[in-house]
Amino acid sequence: MSDITIYHNPACGTSRNTLALIRNSGAEPRVVLYLQTPPSRDELLGLIAATGQPVRALIRAKAEPYAELGLDDPQWTDDQLVDFMLAHPILINRPIVVTPLGTRLCRPSELVLDILPQPQQGAFNKEDGEPVVDAQGRRVSVR
Questions:
Q1: Residue 108: its pLDDT value, please?
Q2: Strand order from edge to edge, sheet including 5-8
Q3: Residue 142 lies in a domain
Q4: Domain count across the chain
Q5: Per the domain annotation, does 31 fall within a domain?
Q6: Which one, 18, 36, 67, 82, has the greatest CB density within 10 A?
Q7: What is the mean pLDDT of residues 20-26?
Q8: Per annotation, catalytic residue among 9, 12, 58, 66
Q9: Interval 105-126: pLDDT, tens
Q10: pLDDT > 90? residue 141
């Protein structure tokens, strides 16, 4: 079993790029398709805490139910926002990656490079062609 976990949505380009960067380091992560198998409340709270980010940073504002539910309203408490995320897993921003070096929301995808235990093993370009890692495994693009 891998010591790397990615909470992944295969329909998301950022998530696909992040998964490919993990694999480019030689690791095969545990892939959690969180839309099919959502985390429990305790798991989600643990992920949020481990990122060091506020709850709102882990909510996907572009997801359809966000505006419909009025989640930009500051009236919602963190507990209520977590309840919405559990009821509508599409609201969980992705990809979230857990490694022995930390937990991070990897937006943009190259943020995963900061928490991978092993270096990149070759060149990597994002799906859109943007270079991220050169042939020697060195980062070439930082946003």
A1: 96
A2: 30-33, 5-8, 96-99, 102-105
A3: no
A4: 1
A5: yes
A6: 18
A7: 97
A8: 12
A9: 999 999 999 999 999 999 999 9
A10: no
pLDDT digits (tens, 9 = 90+) for 27-70: 999 999 999 999 999 999 999 999 999 999 999 999 999 999 99
pLDDT confidence of residue 1: 54
Judge contact between 44 and 87, C-beta under 8 A.
no
Burial class (CB in 10 A: 0-12, 13-18, 19+), 12: middle
Residue 106: active-site member = no
Rg (CA), the chain: 16
Asked if residue 17 belongs to a domain, the reply is yes
Question: Model pTM greater than 0.90?
Answer: yes
What is the domain-level CATH number for residue 100?
3.40.30.10
Q: Which amino acid is at 83?
A: D
Q: Mapped to the 3 state alphabet, what secondary structure does 50-117 carry?
A: HHCCCHHHHECCCCHHHHHHCCCCCCCCHHHHHHHHHHCHHHECCCEEEECCEEEECCCHHHHHHCCC
The 10 Å CB-count burial string (b at 16+, else e) for 88-104 is bbbbbbbbbbbbeeebb
Asked if the peptide bond before residue 38 counts as cis, ω within 30 degrees of 0, the response is no
